[in-house]
Here is the input.
Amino acid sequence: MSKSLGVFLTRCLKPTVAGLALLICFGNTAVAEEYLLAKGDVLEFQVLGIPDLRQRSPIGMDGTVLLPLVGAVQAAGRTVSAVRDAVVARAPQKGYPVQGVGGDVWQFVHPEAVVLQVVEYRPIYLTGDVANPGEQPFRSGMTVRQAIAVAGGYDLVRLRIDNPILELTDLKTQYNTTWPRLAAAQIRVARLRAELEGRDETGLAVSADGGLSAGLLPEIEKVQGELLANRVDDHSKEKQAVRVSLQHIERRLDLLSRRQENEQTAKEEDTIELERVRRLNEKGLASVALLNDARRAVLLWSTRALESFAEASRMERERNDLQRNLVRIEDSRRIELLGELTAAMLDVADLNAQLQGNAEKLVYVGGLRSELARGGRQSPPEITVVRKSADAVDRISANEETDLWPGDVVEITLNVDWILAPSLHPSIAAE
Here is the structure.
């Protein structure tokens, strides 16, 4: 570059370049005047009139930035203007080879042509109750409100549900269908208790609260009452059938006992007759045929006695079995009823828990739907800006108009106490 060109740059470009450099470096007073560069910021170095001397360099982990001609310059913890001053102070001592007609010519860089600016700030981070928490590029003059808008607005991500209007409809359906099931389970428990206690009525009055139709409740009670009556009647008939069989056995045993008595009497008489015929036969007064007939008569009654004894033993076993069946019928029925009662009580507890859970969800989702319909919030969000400086980390209480700095972490918390405590929000009950 010739001497005349240098004079031209000095006289003509000096005011323009200086003003441009100041505009770029200090255009946003909220950031440039006070903002201290930090690791991760990206600087752009440029010498006007020399396109090859243009480079973007990030501030490294050691806090320095590598720039053409001047090498490593300490940047972290300093303002942009301070870093530029350091670059300008060192730039005149360095030459830059420019290819000329007769070969490379070393030319010094004019300080007024040096431009240094931040082209990429450290990102900011949003966390908490926003639709899309995470990292955002920083823009000069950025406020909390703008960052929240870029993040999709406020959203209860930690309490995320589907569309509250549709969800409320589904929850109401679940709530209304749980009530009849609960009422039926309660009546079933009452019916089982009545069976266990031998009563023919449940004696339970279930209210029609919670959306249970007044016509459905009496129908459930009627069906359960008929079921109770039928089961009690069936149980009575089963026991009565066993009792009738026992009565038949008892009558048969009584008849058999009488027959055994008659057979025993006849056997004793025939035995006496056999002894008389045997004495007469010894005296020659009775024939052998008559003696044999007497013996056959005694043998016949002995055989009949054995048959009667065997039949009596079999009938006694049947009677014992029927008596045991009568007891077993009662025991089995009680065991079955206790099992059904346990299952029914568990159903009541489960349905009560479901009903309570649905009621709490209805309060919560109803509140969200109300907020969606009103398009507002019950109270301002809690906003905290976590800002790291050179020697400390500060937690700053902020609002939507607070200016952000590069590297800030914005914590956003919506107040949901009115949702979790329905008594604080009575309008929900009217939904």
Q: What stands out?
A: The first strand starts at residue 42 and ends at 47. The two ends are 81 Å apart (CA to CA). The chain has three domains: 36-120, 124-156+377-413, 164-374.
